[in-house]
Amino acid sequence: MAPTGNDGRDGYLAFVETHQHRLLRAAYLICGNRHQAEDLLQDALLKLALRWTSVRDGDPSAYVRAILYRDAVSWWRRRRREWLSATPPEQVAHDRDGALRLTMHDALGLLPPRQRAVLVLRYYEDLTEVATAEALGVTVGTVKSQCHAALRRLREVAPDLARDARPGQGSADLTAGVEVNP
């Protein structure tokens, strides 16, 4: 691709405009703090801007997600504790699943950082095990074991999630369609 006068600045800006909200939601789910999520995303987008010419032809959103999750883990390691939000984030629309969302948010907050990251990547971002492993810089086996442990822990700390996941179906499993041993 021939360089343009602005070295891809328009392409970068278009990417940021179309992907920033989804990436911010993922960052929030990973760290549980809106302000930290904004900082993580801003740092990740800055790193992307510095490498835009070499990344733009590939998958820039995967590149940003990898930076985002690795920076989040680095932040956790530096601080050795988690900062949980005492209140849920502002909600634009009134949704009827608010209690379920709050329960899920609280349950995710009780998981260790790596398990939380694996669940968010696998089930929120809908990445494959291989893509999740690449984003986190671990093996596929680690993704599988962390996912298994995280789902087991979710069942322990939030049994209401299984009951509320599908109204009218009794105690439906959180992982319907996913092979996980209890």
- Please count the beta strands (DSSP E, at least 2 residues each): 0
CA-based gyration radius: 18 Å
Give helix % range: 55-70%
Number of helices: 8
Order of helices and strands: HHHHHHHH
> Which class do the helix and strand fractions yield?
mainly alpha
How far do the termini sit from each other?
51 Å
Taken as a percent bin, the fraction of beta residues is under 5%
Main sheet overview: none
Average pLDDT for all residues? 78
Looking at the structure, what is the overall shape?
globular
Uncertain stretches:
164-182
What would your notes on this structure say?
By secondary structure, the protein is mostly helical. The chain has helices spanning 9-31, 34-55, 60-79, 98-109, 113-124, 129-136, 140-157, 159-164. The model is unreliable at 164-182 (pLDDT under 50).
